[in-house]
Amino acid sequence: MRLLVFVLLCVWLVAGEQLERDQVLFVPEDWVHEGRVSPHEEVQLTFALMQQNVDRLEKLLQLVSDPDSRHYGKFFSLEEVASLVRPSQLTEKAVWTWLQGHGIENCSSVITRDFLLCTMSVQVAERLLPGSQFHRYRRGDQTVMRSSSQYSVHKDVAEHLHFVGGVLRFPLSGKENIKAWAGPKRPTKAFHLGVTPATLRTRYNLTAADIGSAANNSQAVAQFLEQYYHPADLAEFMSLFARGFKHLTEVERVVGKQGGGKAGLEASLDVEYIMSTGANIPTWVFTNPGRHETQEPFLQWMLLLSNMSAVPWVHTISYGDDEDSLSAAYMNRINNEFMKAGLRGITLLFASGDSGAGCRHLTKENVFRPSFPASSPYVTTVGGTSFKNPFKVTYEVTDYISGGGFSNVFTMPDYQVSAVSAFLKGAQPLPPESYFNRTGRAYPDMAALSDNYWVVTNLVPIPWVSGTSASTPVVGGILSLINDQRFLKGLPALGFLNPRLYKLKGAGLFDVTEGCHLGCLDEKVEGNGFCAASSWDPVTGWGTPNYPVLLDAFMDD
Ligand SMILES: *[C@@H]1O[C@H](CO)[C@@H](O)[C@H](O)[C@H]1NC(C)=O
Ligand SMILES: *[C@@H]1O[C@H](CO)[C@@H](O)[C@H](O)[C@H]1NC(C)=O
Ligand SMILES: *[C@@H]1O[C@H](CO)[C@@H](O)[C@H](O)[C@H]1NC(C)=O
Ligand SMILES: *[C@@H]1O[C@H](CO)[C@@H](O)[C@H](O)[C@H]1NC(C)=O
Ligand SMILES: *[C@@H]1O[C@H](CO)[C@@H](O)[C@H](O)[C@H]1NC(C)=O
């Protein structure tokens, strides 16, 4: 008996603590298992160190983002953010002692000191993280190493780490980038206008004079698929479609690995459209950060933001995963990273996803399936619309794919309580209560056209490209134009938009009130998911931008 207790105690001591017990372990179906990785191969793991003053970070973010606060727009530099959140000496020491105890010395940090990226052999990694076992998986010509089982860390460091990256989560594929992205949708009618820069500029009331000119303005797209935009595609797109307004035809800076090979549709789309609405504004592309086999590309992009003092003001990202598949530790830490960005005055826009409310099939019944980071309270989420009459640049209705709903993890932030309550009281009929969590963060926040875009990829113009990956860079470009006008007047950037956006109560936005999005196709949910309604709704948010009016509303301090 005593021996058994002793053995159990030893197991507990050695096994340590699991940081991400709730992370769902599964190999996405398109990855093929290639076997165990040899003990001498190298892995690169990312250690997310516990930060200090996270409550204060949140408070400060509220102050600098609230137009009624006297701290509005008083953003922090990255160095100031670093002195706020960087880990305590105790945390740094505990983590270093643990790593060095395993002979791990080859690490690099970031300016905020809250991440460590370390290289070690598989053998060392498996000893450091009891329970882990690294395997190699292949998808086409891309390979990754991941653990097939949960990891734990020594109990001495458990309270000093949020999680270890590069162990469990697989990179998303093109199809899953935004879940259910199905590539070009088939046209419903033989002839169609299609969406081009001219269409967008007309619909959103941008004149030829509405282009960027401020010094130091900038915008960016970030993408995490193994795909590239091609400079020649961008140039051809601009010469074919971007007539009648001044614009740039080249990306200012590529951060990350810009490879050769075929251009990706998604990458082409993002760059071509942010540079069409945000015309003449220097544009960066963050591409494929974290190409080592054990890195998580999205996480590596977050590290990059914390390691670069000067980054663009607006970032658009078409990326999302099922909220229920991710660990709470991971999502909460990513939220801290979003708060750090917001405190610097950076605007982060995420696509709301392309499967409406989503659907998760549980044994007893179905529930909607929110997507993260779309469901994060600290980013602005963009949904999608289409023209009611596809032959006229007028009235917009819901695009049935437009992602939206309520988080099951994050509570509803104050800035949206009255808007969302009004929707819940007013909109009839609502899906059954058992399908969604009415106390959660509700999204999207706004929308733009997401249907039937023209894109040039591999030098070929392609019609019928659809998805919220299209609407997000369109909104990004428009917000960059507003930043531009603000900079010309000596005003600070918009930063984290939502507190101010919700105070507008829809001013400057075309309210989208027609149509429902996808959800669970079962007899209990009439209309599948949610339906658009007047004012805010969980399908198109507050609606789509009417540039001159929105600019006016965002200019007065
Ligand atoms: C440290 O790791 C990097 C890869 O991240 C590798 O290129 C380098 O050679 C390593 N340095 C040492 C001293 O092992
Ligand atoms: C952060 O930037 C510094 C300086 O450029 C570099 O040495 C370090 O490796 C970077 N950190 C990471 C995690 O890439
Ligand atoms: C903007 O566009 C809408 C419809 O496209 C139009 O009705 C309106 O007059 C335009 N101008 C302003 C300043 O709203
Ligand atoms: C632009 O940035 C540079 C370097 O960061 C700075 O010296 C300059 O004052 C900035 N200009 C404006 C107009 O903000
Ligand atoms: C509903 O959301 C809240 C957070 O807003 C969460 O605490 C709760 O667990 C969620 N309920 C379900 C059934 O997921």
UniProtKB/TrEMBL annotation:
Per its UniProt record, the required cofactor names are:
Ca(2+)
Main localization is: other
Q: Which keywords appear in this protein's UniProt record, sorted alphabetically?
A: Autocatalytic cleavage, Calcium, Disulfide bond, Glycoprotein, Hydrolase, Lysosome, Metal-binding, Protease, Serine protease, Signal, Zymogen
One of its Pfam families is Pro-kuma_activ
Where in the cell? Lysosome
Which leading EC class covers this enzyme?
hydrolase
Which top-level group of life is the source organism from? Answer: Eukaryota
Write down the EC number: 3.4.14.9
Q: Which reaction does it catalyse?
A: Release of an N-terminal tripeptide from a polypeptide, but also has endopeptidase activity
Q: Where is the active site?
A: 266 (charge relay system), 270 (charge relay system), 469 (charge relay system)
Cell membrane: is it a keyword of this entry?
no
The UniProt entry, under PANTHER family, shows: PROTEASE S8 TRIPEPTIDYL PEPTIDASE I CLN2 (PTHR14218), TRIPEPTIDYL-PEPTIDASE 1 (PTHR14218:SF15)
> Any idea what job this protein has?
Lysosomal serine protease with tripeptidyl-peptidase I activity. May act as a non-specific lysosomal peptidase which generates tripeptides from the breakdown products produced by lysosomal proteinases. Requires substrates with an unsubstituted N-terminus.
Protein name, as recorded? Tripeptidyl-peptidase 1
Its source organism is Bagarius yarrelli (Goonch)
